[in-house]
Design brief:
Helices cover 40% and strands 23% of the residues. It is built from ten helices and ten strands.
């Protein structure tokens, strides 16, 4: 049986009197899409930030490919094969789509952003950038300024920036955020194409996307995992239904 690519063991993160991650344990297997879902305030984004190294855990352990990375900074985790996207897109808006991705390739290879002029000429950067853009459906948009992209295309570009680092594990934090139904459907198809090439941890409120993409799902409530299983198991889980029903009633 394959060893987990990512292991979270009794992870804890507190903000003052609030426990955002409460002795959380989960495993992500190689090649799977593992969705993390839960009501607002469940601790999903906090978990992603801890995995990526942007937040330091107060207790517990994170292992990636068998290595304890709990205390490693974010750049060191990136070079080991972790990459993430964010809820709010962060791009170089005045640069072209292709330039954005070429810089991501360049930065991952350890070069400075001051060599942008070289990046625009260097086939060792341009060719990988164009290949990544093709993977996310932006091959024809390479010379367009990032600011001119639609919201959905900007989300695709952000995923391209993460893929440009050649990750083994891709952390996606709400890739459907702010999208309409048509853009969400296109993003689901793009992620279906990517999922066969990289392991993914997916945080997402769009349940259609979650059940279309996930191999397994972990449900968080108040920083704790109340269930982990295949999508059909999660659909049938009475505790999960109760947790979401209570959340919906509170919001109404």
């Amino acid at each position: 049986m394959a060893e987990p690519l990512l292991t979270i063991d009794r992870l804890v993160k507190r903000f003052g009197g609030l426990t955002a991650t409460d002795h959380l344990s989960l495993e992500v297997m190689p090649g799977e899409v593992h969705a993390v879902i839960g009501p607002n305030g469940a601790g999903k984004t906090t978990l992603i930030a801890q995995i990526a190294g942007e937040l330091r855990a107060d207790a517990g352990e994170i292992r990636f490919a068998g290595e304890d990375i709990t205390r490693l900074p974010a750049p060191a985790r990136s070079h080991r094969g972790l990459a993430r996207s964010f809820q709010v897109t962060s791009l170089f808006a005045d640069m072209t789509v292709e330039d954005n991705v070429a810089l991501a390739v360049q930065a991952h290879d350890g070069h400075s952003f001051r060599f942008l002029a070289d990046a625009r000429r260097d086939a060792r950067l341009r060719d990988p950038a164009r290949a990544v853009l093709a993977r996310v459906g932006l091959a024809e948009r390479g010379q367009v300024r990032a600011a001119a992209l639609s919201h959905g295309e900007q989300r695709q570009l952000e995923i391209a920036l993460a893929l440009a680092t050649r990750p083994r594990l891709l952390l996606l934090d709400e890739p459907m955020a702010g999208m309409g139904a048509e853009e969400s459907a296109r993003m689901i198809e793009r992620l279906r194409g990517i999922k066969s090439q990289v392991t993914i941890v997916l945080v997402e409120h769009d349940m259609d996307a979650v059940f279309a993409l996930a191999d397994r799902i972990t449900v968080l409530v108040y920083g704790r995992a109340i269930a982990t299983g295949r999508p059909d198991e999660i659909r049938r889980n009475a505790q999960v239904r109760e947790a979401y029903l209570g959340d919906e009633q509170a919001a109404s």
